[in-house]
Amino acid sequence: MSDAQPAGGPTEAEIESVMRAARVLVGVSAQSFAVVEDRLTLPQLRVLVMVASRGPLRLAAVAEGLGVHPSNASRACDRLVVAGLLNRTDDPADRRQLVLRVTEAGEALVDEVMRTRRTTIDRLLSRMAPTDRAALVPALAALADAADDGFARAVWSMGWTTGAETAPGDDTEPNGGPGR
After folding, report:
1. Fewer Cβ close by (within 10 Å): the C or N end of the chain?
2. Which of 47, 45, 44, 46 is nearest to 58 (CA)?
3. CATH number of the domain to which 44 belongs
């Protein structure tokens, strides 16, 4: 198969190189989940990461982020509440809504997963020559920029986003204020 593509498009080698890198990152994700899989399911981890990343969330926002019916999200959250990883309260602005907040134990679990990911990535980068690592930074930044947040919801719902980033279309706390 030829590496050339019409109209300056990506070559087969470029596509394959990104596919190989994606497999590595999926492996990093799977390995990081393995450190907590005896304590919770992947959907439960996704819920914890959403709430830890975004601050208090309504149950409806969690269901939307997971792409499931609110009753399914409620069951996952029930288990997290029982495990002491989430707190669930009525929304003071609308008592028909439930608000979820991560507990210290839940935060510690999310931190453990993220720390495992960072440690694994550090180990992988340490195996690279410094010049290759330096070249990787602008290349990965350009790839992320090319995505133009088109994958933000998928990444967020799969438990990758922590910090101030938010899922598209849902960037507010339950009271309507900005997310954390």
Report:
1. N
2. 47
3. 1.10.10.10
Is 110 a member of any domain? yes
* DSSP state for residue 176 in the 8-state scheme: S
Q: What is the pLDDT of residues 124-180, one digit of tens each?
A: 999 999 999 999 999 998 988 888 766 666 665 566 654 444 443 444 344 333 333
What long-range pairs does 166-169 form, CB within 8 A, spacing at least 24? 166/53, 166/54, 167/50, 167/54, 167/65
The answer to whether position 38 is within a domain reads: yes
In a domain, 67, yes or no: yes
Please answer whether residues 101 and 56 qualify as being in contact, where contact means their C-beta atoms are separated by less than 8 angstroms: yes
Q: How many domains does the chain have?
A: 1
Q: Which among 44, 27, 172 has a CA at the least distance from the CA of 105? A: 44
Q: What torsion do the CA atoms of 40, 44, 46, 48 make, to the nearest 10 degrees?
A: -90
Query: Does this model's pTM top 0.90?
Result: no
Q: Whole domain around residue 123: which residue ranges?
A: 14-157
Could you give the CA distance from residue 13 to residue 125 in angstroms, rounded to a whole number? 21
Contact yes or no for 171/153 (Cβ under 8 A): no
